[in-house]
């Protein structure tokens, strides 16, 4: 076992950190307040390979490992969790689904522009009446000659409005339950597909989230992604990897909140001393630093196992569950250490506190992660 990052990984972390500090940090508050998806930084993200991190170079990606992917998402989330969520959804859901289950032609047509950052990806599983119970979806796809006809709607779709290529799940055989769900690639602008309501969110506000509506939306038959009836099974495999990304996002967010708290504790004085000299504050800092390291190790372990091939359902869920819950605690303590200044927008604490809640909800709630973990334990 070697827990040390390689020189290349240290260099990768430094370069993404520098990019996040110089190109993202100055705009974080403005994007958050305006709920603005920063399409203006997409070329820079693409230039760094951040829109095709794990996609092989032959498909226009950076060809990096799952551990490298965690480093990238972590460093973005340390500065702006909202942008990190967008990068994670583009890479870990949409592009990953096409990479894992697409035909060679689908990869050439859709994956290459996604990986190069020429197109932004969206991924639609959740519906208004089915989130955790995703197999209960209602959106349908019916075969009509050389086409599939989609009807229904998706809720909480990251990049539902700003995305160009969407992977969406739909029921193709209702009687077959979860085995009657298939995945499809739909290009935005296809007649019958319209973005719906843009969500006005508590946090992660730089990440675009909206409904997507399908009304007699006809797509060519060759847009079926993976085998017919395997869409839900494939989705679970995509989420195994996607959850490692949300774990990394949680670690990065927790790190950002912890660093802000540490800095403030050394600057702020009370009773004639820096508040960092009080044991109550020191223990919060020590506990958070320790929990963050633990979460990082769980996350890198899941990523390392993914890099070696095979399923990581249990490891991904454990990493996502633990990292997201310790991130909530880190953001909470960050506000507490800032006192009243944690409650106002002049400091980053309140934004971390709002952003962090998504990590225990998106890509499977904490309750669903516990359910997945318990299912493995009781097998
Ligand atoms: C900002 C944001 C971005 C998102 N991006 C995407 C995206 O790009 N694509 C996409 O498909 N989805 C996306 N989602 C949706 C997200 O994955 C769902 O919100 C999440 O899976 C929970 O589903 P739900 O909201 O319907 O909650 P519900 O499933 O209705 O859950 C409500 C509560 O009940 C609990 N619960 C449900 N079932 C059980 C059970 N069996 N045992 C114990 N407790 C249970 C849940 O844990 C939760 O606490 C996004 C959501 C947000 C907020």
Describe this entry's structure for a reader.
This protein is an alpha+beta fold. Helix content is 50%, strand content 16%. The chain has eleven helices and ten strands. It has helices at residues 7-24, 28-34, 42-47, 66-79, 81-101, 104-115, 231-267, 279-307, 313-338, 349-355, 366-377, and strands at 121-124, 140-144, 147-158, 165-171, 181-187, 193-198, 209-220, 224-225, 269-270, 273-274. The strands form three sheets. The protein has a four-stranded mixed β-sheet, with helices on one face. A four-stranded antiparallel β-sheet has the order 2-3-7-6, covered by helices on one side. Strands 9-10 form a two-stranded antiparallel ribbon. α5 packs antiparallel against α6. The protein is globular. The model has no long low-confidence stretch (mean pLDDT 98). It binds flavin-adenine dinucleotide. The site of flavin-adenine dinucleotide has 22 residues, from β1, β3 and α11. Flavin-adenine dinucleotide binds at residues 89, 123-126, 131-132, 156-158, 201, 204, 209, 358, 361-365, 367-368, 371.
Question: How do the helices and strands line up, and which of them pair or pack?
Answer:
Blueprint: H1 7-24, H2 28-34, H3 42-47, H4 66-79, H5 81-101, H6 104-115, E1 121-124, E2 140-144, E3 147-158, E4 165-171, E5 181-187, E6 193-198, E7 209-220, E8 224-225, H7 231-267, E9 269-270, E10 273-274, H8 279-307, H9 313-338, H10 349-355, H11 366-377
Parallel strand pairs: 1-4
Antiparallel strand pairs: 2-3, 3-7, 4-5, 5-8, 6-7, 9-10
Helix pairs in contact: 1-4, 4-5, 4-7, 4-8, 5-6, 5-7, 7-8, 7-9, 8-9, 9-10, 9-11
The structure holds flavin-adenine dinucleotide (FAD).
Flavin-adenine dinucleotide (FAD) binds next to strand 1, strand 3 and helix 11.
């Amino acid at each position: 076992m070697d827990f040390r990052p390689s020189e290349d990984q240290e260099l990768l972390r430094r370069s993404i950190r520098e990019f996040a500090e110089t190109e993202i940090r100055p705009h974080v508050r403005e994007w958050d307040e305006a709920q603005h998806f920063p399409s203006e930084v997409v070329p820079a993200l693409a230039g760094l390979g951040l829109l095709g991190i794990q996609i092989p170079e032959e498909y226009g990606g950076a060809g990096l490992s799952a551990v490298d992917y965690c480093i990238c998402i972590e460093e973005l989330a340390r500065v702006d969790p909202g942008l990190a969520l967008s990068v994670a959804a583009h890479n870990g859901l949409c592009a990953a689904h096409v990479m894992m289950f697409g035909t060679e032609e689908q990869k050439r047509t859709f994956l290459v522009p996604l990986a190069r950052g020429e197109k932004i990806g969206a991924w639609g599983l959740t519906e208004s009446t089915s989130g955790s119970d995703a197999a209960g979806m209602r959106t349908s796809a019916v075969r009509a000659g050389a086409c599939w006809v989609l009807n229904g709607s998706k809720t909480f779709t990251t990049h539902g409005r700003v995305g160009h290529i969407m992977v969406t799940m739909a029921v193709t055989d209702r009687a077959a339950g979860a085995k009657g769900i298939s995945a499809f690639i739909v290009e935005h602008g296809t007649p019958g597909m319209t973005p719906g309501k843009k969500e006005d969110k508590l946090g992660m506000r730089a990440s675009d989230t909206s409904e997507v509506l399908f009304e007699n939306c006809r797509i060519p038959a060759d847009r079926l992604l993976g085998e017919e009836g395997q869409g839900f099974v494939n989705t679970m495999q995509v989420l195994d990897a996607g959850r490692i990304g949300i774990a990394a996002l949680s670690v990065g967010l927790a790190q950002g909140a912890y660093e802000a708290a540490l800095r403030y504790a050394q600057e702020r004085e009370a009773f004639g001393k820096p508040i960092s000299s009080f044991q109550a504050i020191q223990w919060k800092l020590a506990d958070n630093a320790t929990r963050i390291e633990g979460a990082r190790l769980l996350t890198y372990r899941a990523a390392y196992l993914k890099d070696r091939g095979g399923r990581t359902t249990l490891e991904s869920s454990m990493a996502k569950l633990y990292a997201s819950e310790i991130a909530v605690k880190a953001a909470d303590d960050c506000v507490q250490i800032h006192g009243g200044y944690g409650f106002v927008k002049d400091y980053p604490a309140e934004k971390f506190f709002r952003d962090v809640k998504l990590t225990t909800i998106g890509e499977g709630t904490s309750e669903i992660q516990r359910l997945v973990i318990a299912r493995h334990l009781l097998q």
